[in-house]
Amino acid sequence: MTRLDALDPELSPEARRAQVLDLLRQALAVGRTEVRRRFEQGATGLVAAQALSYLIDQIIRVLHDDTAEKVYPAPNPTVSERLTLVATGGYGRGQLAPSSDIDLLFLLPYKQTPHGEQVVEHMLYMLWDLGLKVGHATRSVAECVRFARADLTIRTALLEARYVWGEPALFAELQRSYAADVMAGSAREFVEQKLAERDARHVRMGDSRYVLEPNIKEGKGSLRDLHTLFWIAKFVYRVSDVGELTARGVLTAPEATKFAKAESFLWSIRFQLHYLTGRPEERLTFDVQAELARRMSYTDHAGSRGVERFMKHYFLVAKDVGDLTRIFCAALEAEQQRKPRLSLARFWSGWRRDVDGFKVDGERVNIADPQAFLADPVNFIRLFSVAQQQGLDTHPTALRLITQNLRRIDATLRDDREANRLFLEIMTSPNDPETTLRRMNEAGVFGRFVPDFGRVVAQMQYDMYHVYTVDEHTLFAIGILNRIERGLLKDELPLATSLMPKLQSRRALYVAVLLHDIAKGRGGDHSELGERIAYKLGPRFGLSAEETETVAWLVLHHLAMSNVAFKRDLQDPQTIGDFVALVQSPERLKLLLVLTVADIRGVGPKTWNNWKAALLRELYWAADERMTGPLNRDAPSGAERRVGEATAALRAELKDWSDADFQEHVARGTPSYWLSVDPATASRHARLMRRARLDGAPLSVETRVDPPRGVTELTIYTEDHPGLFAGIAGAMAVSGANIVDAKIFTLADGMALDSFWLQDADGSAFDRPEKLARLAVSIEQSLSGRLRSLDDLK
Predict the structure, then answer these.
(1) Helix axis angle, 223-237 relative to 306-336, nearest 10°?
(2) What is the pTM of this model?
């Protein structure tokens, strides 16, 4: 306060305010510069976050005293004029990132007074003029309690309330009232609500901690998950520090250390990210990852880039956070749950309390003997097998024991015939193998039991194509394969679904999906390296020599079908001939088609589209026909047979058409058209084309909103000519429509029938009437030459 006290007392209020603001601005700039200097010289992000919080504390304290003593002095303040400044939220934890908001509570004795209102208003304007982002509330103790009981966000923010300045007794009253009137008797409810909030946040962020552009604050395995653990611990156990949970037996010492290391690492990334971007950016996007890796001293090594090593470290830390929060929160959830009412399901669960040496505890599979993993290491695998068979999760107590005994998963267990039989059974089970394998992966069992898979856990795929890490992509692909087999994707993947029951090498297909990317990150061709791993692991898993050879072939050639379908001319007989020479058998063709589909769909939710599906179908049927051929020369080919089936299905849709009109319409179609559209779509197209001919319209445009897919289907029928597609695409760009899929056909009579699936910039259906009207006009203008799309886009 020395420099503020030295200000000329004769200054006008406006002049004095300007000088106070200047002095505070200087102090803030000097403090921030010093925090950054220390951080860049080696201080951790957590230490820097605490230093920034301390800096803001001092600014607020000085500002409060100057406001209360110089600007709006109250020589003998009454009880009602006293004020307490309380930090809440992240600021309440004493942690601030460079671009964080400051959550500040102006705590009043019972209601606002004119003097208190003046002080609060002056302080807020000064803080805003300093460039600080302040989230504020002005409440009495009673109001804080009332709002906290009604709102989970406020309840959580006040859980971390911290005294900054002002009347200490008022803050103590808030703490007492919060403990007595908010926390008492509501721990179970708080735990359930925070876990539900966490689950909703995970879904919103992609429901995976292995997305390649993760959100380090809100994503799965992020700082917010650590905060959730701390909030629950503080609410349930009334602790002020995570370290206290060790003394209470809630966390082991290694787990508490893991928490501290994860928190420090994530805070360091967050500080680097804020400093690099100059804004409150929380996503590790591709454009910042390499520079962050350099700033955090990750260098290139033989076979791996620095950025890949940095991101792998991040994902492993995110996995540690997931381990901690899963074990801790699941234990609390079980502890806080009400005893369920008597039900038939509960009655029957009593009959299975002991299953293969395990017990069902709170609808989770738990170990019956703490020495289970020591007595028989096969129990590491058997536990997850039993949980999968029973449709239950694994108990946190069992997971903690697994973590403590992971070193016992060694070469002896890996060679154990029973352990490998159970593992193969888990992977090929119809009962959701993806979830069970993911639980094994998160527990660390998967990577220890299959070390080659352990090498790709958290392995970055540094390209713009993949959305997940190698291990997560593999698990998603196994899940897709299982859903195909169960018929859950028959509308989206009809060909793959129809082929699954016909496969003779089902087990080989599941193992091939597991191993198709297992050699990534080793340098060299991952398909060739993966083939060698397949020959090693196949016999270990219990596959026959023939199955192992099939797996190795599929891993070696798992990219062949997509490369041919998407990059080669499928109308060239040589293309089909070369592909058939590689595949050699109808069984391998079926396996490769299903593997390719599962691989592409497992990359990310937006990777699969109708264009890719049509090309893969065309290649599959062409290769199948080349290998099998018609039984005799007079028999129709496979393609001809399928065209006949498609037109027959369309005839059933167009019952009101005469035979002559129908045959005339069929003559306009091409084999590629008939094999690419379903009967309902073909029927809509037929009626659109008929109306256009009857009206003599040179251009027909039809839109159809598809709410389940969140897209708008736009169909255009007009005479084909060079530049048609470019003109349509330009009109769409001018209108703000994003093309997410397309089917382009030139019919036998030279007319173009093009379908586009459109979304708005926010990813929703492009369905607002004014936008659709503008799009139709833009298309008409573009095709008539009156719209210069490139000029309009500038």
Answers:
(1) 30
(2) 0.73
